[in-house]
Amino acid sequence: MAKKDEKPAEVQTAAENETKQAEKPAEVQTAAENETKQAEKPATEKKDGGSVLEKVGKAAIKEHGLAKVFVTSDGTVFRTENDAKNYAANLKNRSILKVEK
After folding, report:
1. Fewest C-beta in 10 Å: which of 5, 53, 66, 81?
2. Which residues constitute the domain of residue 91?
3. 8 Å CB contact between 74 and 36
4. Pairwise CA distance, residues 74 & 65, whole Å
5. Tens-digit pLDDT profile for the chain (101 aa)?
6. Structurally, how many domains does the chain consist of?
7. SS3 category, 81
8. Has residue 44 been placed in a domain?
9. CB 62: neighbour CB atoms within 10 A?
10. Is residue 2 included in any domain, yes or no?
């Protein structure tokens, strides 16, 4: 039985969690940390003559038979510009790419 002052091992305070994060080796990353680093990179880097986001948009157009789509910086595809803008409002990079057939 746990003493009154002891916490179960799985319960941590924010300060304890930060301490553990600081002690973690640099090469070890959580999914959230990796996602943050990916968001900081420009997703429109050119590869083989077209941007990555443009290729994602073109693939969605082809797969779903659409005339145009809107792609957010994290690669999420939307049919309407308004939906893409609303979604992008929560991203660090709020840019939207319009991709047409």
Report:
1. 5
2. 16-100
3. no
4. 22
5. 555 655 555 555 555 655 555 554 444 445 555 555 555 555 544 444 468 999 999 999 999 999 999 999 999 999 999 999 999 999 999 999 999 99
6. 1
7. helix
8. yes
9. 10
10. no
**Can you tell me the distance from the alpha carbon of 45 to that of 55, in angstroms, rounded to the nearest whole number?**
11
Q: What is the reported pLDDT for 58?
A: 95
**Residue linked to tokens 């991709």:** 99
Q: DSSP 3-state assignment of 69?
A: strand
DSSP state of 67: S
**Helix (H) or strand (E) run with residue 98 in it:** strand 96-100
What SS3 state is found at 64?
helix
Write the burial class of residue 44 (CB in 10 Å: 0-12 exposed, 13-18 middle, 19+ buried): middle
The pair of three-digit structure tokens given for residue 29, joined into one six-digit string: 């990353």
The answer to whether residue 1 sits within a structural domain is no
Whether 8 is covered by a domain: the verdict is: no
CB atoms within 10 A of CB 57: 25
